[in-house]
Amino acid sequence: MTPPARTQAAIELLDQIIVAAREGGAAADTLIARYFATRRYAGSKDRRAVRELVYSAIRKAGDRPEDGRSAMLLVADADPAVAETFDGSTHAPASIAKDEPRARAGVAPQWLTKALRASGLDGAALTDLAGRATLDLRVNRLVTDRAAVLAALPEAEATEKAPDGIRLPLGTNVELLPLFNGGALEVQDEGSQIVGLAMQAKPGQRIVDFCAGAGGKTLALAAAMADQGAILACDTDRNRLARLAPRATRAGATIIDTMLLNPGRERDALVEWSGQADGVLVDAPCSGTGTWRRNPEARWRLTPDRLSRLQSTQQQVLSAASSLVKPGGALVYIVCSLLDAEGTDQVSWFLNAHPGWQVDRFTLPAGAEHGHGIRLEPGRDGTDGFFVARLIRAC
Q1: From the centroid of its chain, how far is CA 347?
Q2: b vs e for 165-201, b when ≥16 Cβ sit within 10 Å of the residue's Cβ?
Q3: What is the assigned CATH class of domain 135-187?
Q4: Which residues contact 386 (CB under 8 A, 6 or more apart)?
Q5: What digits encode the pLDDT tens for the residues 54-96?
Q6: pLDDT value of position 40
Q7: Residue 8 region, left (φ>0) first, then alpha (ψ -120 to 50), else beta?
Q8: Closest residue by Cα to residue 109 from 60, 63, 61
Q9: N or C terminus of the chain with fewer C-beta within 10 Å?
């Protein structure tokens, strides 16, 4: 592909991504993979170059653009080499017209930027939300230790704060690594590893991972517990939860059971665990504002109505999960969001609605106190953004 053809391909992909964001369609990565699956003539360098153009445009456009061309013009304005590809030749975008409209540049849609500012983010802290993510992995202590992994992977480096974290160069195909296939490594952002430490899991405990998804934090809990005790991993998404069993087998984690839940009827399915868990981890569904480094088009999908629905879900999940905690046990609430409406404000709601609970202050290797818990920020901590709080049920 010529450079102009690459720019035109990026514009076509952006058109698809914009429609998907508006209508709740597939993620950008999925659309990019589909696009090139039908264009075998595009080599690996072409695919990388087009992908880079697409994500550069996504990161620059705060509001969801009207079309891909208006977003790509933001990239052209900042890069003369890209601007030159708008030459109107075969397979190229048309020449740039005088005063042609651009997408609105920014960190996020204006209503969302206002909410983030109200949550204590400003200046560089906002700009860093749309930066580039790192490739972090967690070393599985059930199989090996970090020193052995670092010795086996010269290209790896230890993460600064997560005790079992390593970082690999972007673009590394992790699934081809023998250590990965042998269960020694799991892909997990350093921030995700750190907030999971708030559970303070110990060997022999009984812990519920209430919103386990595909089990990233579940597997970290199993390693922290030295594969001794019991973990129940729950979720309402059958497909995501189904991915946990083969991951647990690969990781050598034998204490994990899974349970598929019906939304709104979680307590009925978990009656045998009522008041029995030493700890319950709630990695709640959220807006994902802390993960824009990995999913920058998510900014275009979030609306005030969707945020309100997520808040209702978070409250419902917190209430159901709290019923499983035994007296003196811990409820750990995590969201990969930087909005107070999904973080510390939800803890305030919970404390008001559920007497007999109190905040347990704790420390982590990263982050800073924020409201009722600790918040990690991409710019300050070099991780995805998270809020985590630890609550104790009265004895």
Answers
A1: 21
A2: bbbbeeeeeeeebebbeebbbbebbbbbbbbbbbbeb
A3: alpha beta
A4: 191, 192, 194, 195, 290, 334, 335, 336, 337, 367, 375, 376
A5: 999 999 999 999 999 999 999 999 999 999 999 999 999 999 9
A6: 83
A7: alpha
A8: 63
A9: C
Task: Please name every residue paired with 61 in a beta bridge, in sequence order, or none if there are none.
Answer: 105
Domains in the chain: boundaries:
3-106, 135-187, 190-393
Q: Are 248 and 219 in contact (CB under 8 A)?
A: yes
End-to-end CA separation in angstroms for the chain: 67
One-letter amino acid at 233 equals A
- The residues, ordered by sequence, that sit 6+ positions from 199 with a Cβ below 8 Å of its Cβ are 207, 221, 224, 279, 281, 330, 332
Reported pTM: 0.93
pLDDT in tens, 248-275: 999 999 999 999 999 888 888 999 999 9
- Which tokens sit at 363? 């420390």
Instruction: Render 45-104 in DSSP notation, one character per residue.
Output: HHHHHHHHHHHHHHHHBSSPPSSHHHHHHHHHHH-HHHHTT-S--TTSPPPPPTT---PP
Distance CA 37, CA 302 (A): 29
Residue type, 230: A
User: Of 211, 234, 286, 336, which residue is the catalytic one?
Assistant: 336
Coil, helix or strand at residue 205: coil
Superfamily of domain 190-393 in the CATH hierarchy: Vaccinia Virus protein VP39 (3.40.50.150)
- One-letter amino acid for residue 228 of the chain: Q
